[in-house]
Every structure is written in structure tokens, then in C-alpha cells.
Specification:
Elements lengths: L16 E7 L26 E4 L4 H7 L16 E6 L5 E9 L10 E4 L2 E4 L1 E5 L1 H4 L9 E7 L2
Parallel strand pairs: 1-7, 2-4
Antiparallel strand pairs: 1-8, 2-7, 3-4, 3-8, 5-6
Length: 149
Amino acid sequence: MARSQPTDPPVDLLAAVRGEVSWFCCGTAWGPCSTTGKGACGTCNSGSLQHAWPNTSDACWAITHPDTCGFNLSRRTCGFQHKITGLCSGSSVVTAIADCGPQTDLFCGEKSCCGATCATDRIIDLTPAAYSKIASLSTGLRPCEISTP
């Protein structure tokens, strides 16, 4: 059965959204990444301050289904900027959408914590360069807050 986007008003990110952040490789080799594809936008590079967003298009939504985890995230397209704040470090980075992802529906209920600070559900992927601004790449997954800059 095909799913369509819910008709409920979407989260518009005028208020911050909490969830998990992870990192992924794309584009030219950088740090732990070998050369790979340029992502859904054709501009993704592991060494750039970029991210993947689960609602960049209808095709992206059909893969990621953030609604399965209770997120009705706004459609944001290539180049749109988000501010991601690591809840463990307090550090922030502003990144631009360069890909579709993560596949949120595979991670519903997943929980990451640092001490008593926790978040559930993977809703944004950063390039290694961006992730390293808020956490060590060795952590792989951290609670975060996503807002508009």
C-alpha cells in the first residue's frame, strides 16, 4: 500500500525539534569516508557542512517515512539551512540540505543519551565535517535539537 504525506499541519521548525543525529559519507573522500555518490541534490560532500533531510521530495518521503515515528516534518529542499545543536556538547552547526535521509522509519524508538540527556528517533544525518563540529565521529549518534538559523 502506498503512503502519502499526512494532512496534519507539518512541523514548521519555528520551534526546535529534538531527535537523534547521525553522520554519513557522500561525495569526495574526506576523513573516514572514501569517495561515494553526491546525494539526492548532486552536491553532497563529506567535507562540507551539509545534511540529509527526510522530506526533500515526495520520492524522499516515500523512502524515509518520518510520520511512522510521529514526525510530520516540513518539506525542505536542496540548499535549505538548518541549525543543529548537539545536546551533549551544546555546540551548534548550520548546514544545508544536500541529500535525502535518514530512513527515519527504520529507527523509530531508537534512543541515544549522554548522561540524563536523551533523544529518540533518528531524524537528521550530517556529513562527517558537520557532525564533527558538535560531537566526535566515534560517537556515531547523539541527541540533538534542530531549528532554523
